[in-house]
Amino acid sequence: MRGNMKTRKAIAVLLMISLLFLSVLSGCSSGISDDAKTEYENQIQQLQEEIDRLNEQLAQYTGSEATTEETVVPPAETASSEIAENTENAQESQTVPDNPAEPEETSENTESDDRTQIVVFGDSIWDSTRDETGIAYLVSQYTGADVYNCAIGGTRATLKAGESSENYDTWDSTSLSGMVNVAIGKVDPEIFLEGYITGGIIRNIDFSKTDYFIIAYGLNDYFAGAPLNADNPNSWDAHGYGGALRFAVDRLRNAYPDAQILLISPTYCQFWKDGYMYTDSNMKDFGGGTLTDYANVCQNVAETQNTLFIDGYSTLGINTYTAEDYLEDGVHLTAAGRELYAKAVSSCLKYGKPGEVSGNSVYY
């Protein structure tokens, strides 16, 4: 192909030069003797024949016959300007390298199927900030993964009293069980997630491509005084915190056995009144236990169910001494707190081992 291109360029240049000489000879044919004029006319005829021959060769390389417009010799009065323009074009074509760089090949689908997919179910710790300082965004930057943030502020892992875990057609609970039921195809998100940001996100997820499910609940269960376990420490009843976590792990694993699951315990918090902290989650009990108790249950589920686990309460680094830096209202995280949290998550996804505790990390 490149050899043919060079041949076409050479023929085109010769054709332009021939036309240039033809115009010069045509311009010189006035004011001369008859013999000289006859000689010029013979030369013009020879050049015309040469032009025709070159056009025929050019047509062989272009795959089509030269047009009548290309083979007609321009009139003497217009030849100079047209030949000059064509000669300039021919000179420009000679500046093109013989071996131009080939364009890069691009895939028809610009989205890579190799990117890690992470789906997050959680509360306002993940949901309250969705800009470039949000946990989900930071995790995506640290890991290079696609992170689908399906967290909803104010929600719990547990079902509320009176809520059924089986009424799929009329489901209206935004609890962890509700999100899991959507993920495994039991519940239509249009039934109860209309108007939530998460509703627009979750309906577009292909859950079969998920590499990691992150489950991060506990604060609102703690505030509501939800039972740690509805019946016993090994209960699967989603009305208890431990049971809700076990229910979620079991259902997700059955539906997506290749995906890993990361449980994150709730983070430390403080309670303020009139500008003073009067207690914290180490001491305050809303009816179900202290937040330490909920964190311990989360760890127990992670260990017995062999999931990845981050101890957000004891080892993340948010505590009485660092709360001023990491908590903005005693509960929700500052930008520094979200960065700390996101680094711990990213580190656990990369280096964590199922059934073992992960905390803060220096890997990011």
Structural class: alpha/beta
Walk across the major sheet and give the strand order. 2-1-3-4-7-8
Provide the CATH architecture of the largest domain. Answer: 3-Layer(aba) Sandwich
Order of helices and strands: HHHHEHHEHHEHHEEEHEHHE
- The helix tally amounts to 13
- Helix amount: 40-55%
What CATH first level of the largest domain would be assigned?
Alpha Beta
The unreliable regions are: 1-10, 63-110
Mean pLDDT: 80
CATH topology of the largest domain: Rossmann fold
Rg calc: 38 Å
User: Biggest sheet, open or closed, and with what strands and sense?
Assistant: 6 strands, parallel
CATH-assigned homologous superfamily of the largest domain:
SGNH hydrolase
The rough form would be described as elongated
User: Roughly how many Å apart are the termini?
Assistant: 51 Å
Extended strand count: 8
Q: How many structurally independent domains?
A: 2
Beta content comes to: 5-15%
Describe this structure in words.
The protein has helices at residues 2-27, 34-62, 68-71, 76-94, 124-127, 135-143, 176-183, 197-202, 219-223, 241-255, 291-305, 323-326, 335-351, and strands at 117-122, 146-149, 212-216, 260-264, 270-273, 276-280, 308-310, 357-358. The chain has two domains: 2-94; 117-358, SGNH hydrolase (Rossmann fold). 44% of the residues lie in helices and 9% in strands. The protein is α/β, with parallel strands linked by helices and 364 residues long. The longest helix is centred in the N-terminal third of the chain and has 29 residues, at 34-62. Mean pLDDT is 80; it is low at 1-10 and 63-110. The chain has 13 helices and eight strands.
